[in-house]
Write a structure and sequence with these properties.
Elements lengths: L2 E2 L10 E7 L3 H11 L5 E5 L13 E2 L1 H9 L3 H7 L9 E5 L6 E6 L16 E2 L2 H14 L3 E5 L2 E8 L2 E7 L5 E11 L6 H5 L4 E5 L4 E7 L3 H4 L7 E4 L6 E5 L5 E7 L3 H16 L6 E8 L2 E5 L3 E2 L2 E3 L5 E2 L7 H21 L4 H26 L16 H22 L2 H6 L39 E5 L6 H10 L4 E5 L13 E4 L5 E5 L6 H9 L3
């Protein structure tokens, strides 16, 4: 059971292997990654309950769903998601919800299958659904513990640990000693501040006004059919919106609207988005300005940063939470390996080396997506019911297809992020090392990913490879390794290597036609020996 840190801190442990500041999706994901391996962790989160009025992220990409599958949580999340994948896989551009359609993208955001390219479809779900599922998962783990209603206010490092000060709203404090600390405490991160790290980058000049509203009649009024996003292109209310459920709850972002204007004119903005007056109730508001920033360093000795504490990007494309969750996966298994004693110090050194290039690429892609929003698509005559209107809509549709396709069909980015520079990924003779393991659907209907072990996995795809040398080298160093024999299967002809060494995060650590002569050196490199 979680500790109610808002009332008492005395029930918290005095020491813990890993303390996680921040219990949003990133911090909770790190706790799941650690706790499944039996590594004790304490998650300190100021919110006692998950907020359901500010959904924040709505897109869980296929990579995030592959991790949830690995944790045994994918089906649970899909059952909780208000919108099933089958409900819609479209994004619509229109002059209003009751106006003209300008363009449409189908099969977006990994919501439609593409052969066996990935193990799980993406999912549209409010962030609070993911948080609730992850909270439950942490509570179910013997090694996981939540301290809700408290926050990390300070930390001090020594050679063998970190003293973390936790405080509740009543002013009570307690110092917990941790071997390692993960700062997943968001944009205003205390942990980032305490290690002397700072954001670098810029922010957009234009404000945006987010809100959640209920409008039970809107589903029946929409002229364009179901969609996961509607982009409204009209001068009165350039915006984007989408359903949070099928009962009339919607999220919306009005572009170029500041806090004061949005609070004062929210009802009028909704009417203009719909294209006619409607009975709507604003549930919450969330003014924001896009930021393109990354911390100058993500580690100070025993303290690490992940998620929004380390990097921020515009939300267009739905990459932010998914990138942060991937941070948590990378850092979680590596910390567990070090604490379990089978990995060396270079493995932790690899965290920032591997993640920073990914984060920078995601920031660049999201920034590119932001260059053309509804405000940039405005044009004369779009709502005219005449030849001029038809011409204007055709031109707008062509521009939308040209400028926005990459935002909604981004699997090359999501699945193709490759680690090119890591101290724990040795050079190989093919293109697999550092990439996500190519996904394959097996003849019996299972995913290749379902065969992978909890730690390192050696896939054997051909005879006479000398794989036994790799297995023996791992045993000799106490490195957990599962060997999966795929010789004689259809996989062998579809993977361009005879041996593939796969990490817990489904990234290929090494591949080759046969075991290297010095298999011990290979295992030493992958486990991060100096």
């Amino acid at each position: 059971m979680p500790v109610d840190g808002s009332r008492r801190l005395g029930d918290l442990p005095g020491t813990v292997p890993v303390l996680i500041a921040g219990g949003g999706p990133v911090g909770l994901a790190a706790a799941v990654e650690l706790g499944r391996r039996g590594v004790g962790c304490l998650v300190v989160e100021p919110r006692v309950t998950v907020s359901t009025t500010r959904p924040r992220c709505k897109t869980l990409n296929v990579r995030t769903m592959e991790h949830l599958r690995r944790w045994g949580l994918a089906d649970r999340l899909r059952q909780r998601a208000p919108l099933p994948v089958a409900w819609s896989q479209d994004v619509v551009f229109c002059t209003s919800m009751t106006g003209w359609e300008l363009s449409r993208f189908s099969g977006v955001l990994g919501l439609a299958p593409e052969g066996d390219r990935f193990a799980d479809l993406g999912q549209q779900a409010p962030q609070y659904v993911l948080e609730e599922v992850l909270r439950e998962a942490v509570e179910e783990l013997d090694a996981g513990r939540l301290a809700l209603g408290a926050r990390v206010t300070d930390l001090a490092q020594s050679d063998d640990g970190v003293d973390v000060t936790i405080e509740n709203p009543g002013g009570e404090t307690k110092v917990v000693r941790a071997e390692y600390v993960i700062g997943a405490d968001g944009p205003r991160s205390t942990v980032r501040d305490r290690i002397g790290s700072a954001y670098h980058g810029g922010q957009a000049l234009r404000p945006n006004f987010g809100m959640v509203f209920t409008c039970p009649e809107l589903n029946a009024l929409v002229r364009h059919g179901p969609a996961v996003q509607y982009w409204v292109v009209n001068p009165s209310a350039p915006a984007m919106l989408g359903p949070l459920d099928r009962a009339g709850t919607w999220w919306a972002i009005a572009f170029g609207v500041d806090r004061e204007t949005g609070e004062r004119e929210a009802g009028t903005i909704i009417d203009d988005i719909v294209g006619r007056p409607v009975a709507a109730t604003v549930v919450s508001t969330d003014p924001w300005t896009a930021r393109m920033q990354i911390a100058d360093r993500m580690r100070d000795r025993r303290v690490f940063l992940a998620g929004d504490a380390a990097h921020l990007n515009p939300p267009f494309g739905g990459h932010g939470l998914n990138t942060g969750l991937a941070d948590a996966v990378d850092l979680g298994w590596k910390l567990a390996a070090v604490l379990d004693g089978w990995a060396g110090p270079l493995l932790l050194d690899s965290y920032e080396r591997e993640r920073r290039p990914v984060q920078e690429r995601v920031i660049a892609a999201a920034t590119a997506n932001m260059r053309v929003l509804s405000t940039e698509l405005l044009a004369d005559n779009l709502d005219n019911d005449d030849a001029a209107g038809a011409c204007a809509r055709a031109a707008a549709g062509a521009r939308i297809q040209k400028t926005k396709k990459a935002e909604f069909h981004s699997l090359d980015l999501v699945l193709g992020l490759r680690i090119d520079d890591s101290p724990v990924i040795p050079a190989a003779d093919d293109d697999l090392a550092g990439a996500r393991l190519p996904h394959l659907a097996l003849d019996d209907g299972r995913s290749l990913y379902d065969l992978l072990g909890a730690e390192l996995t050696l896939l054997v795809l051909a005879d006479h490879t000398g794989w036994e040398r790799v297995a023996e080298a791992a045993r000799g160093r106490g490195v957990p390794l599962e060997v999966v024999d795929l010789t004689g299967t259809g996989c062998a002809s579809r993977v361009p290597a005879a041996l593939v060494l796969v990490r817990p995060d489904q990234v290929v650590a090494w591949s080759g036609p046969r075991s290297p002569a010095d298999a011990g050196a290979l295992i030493a490199a992958v486990r991060g020996e100096r």
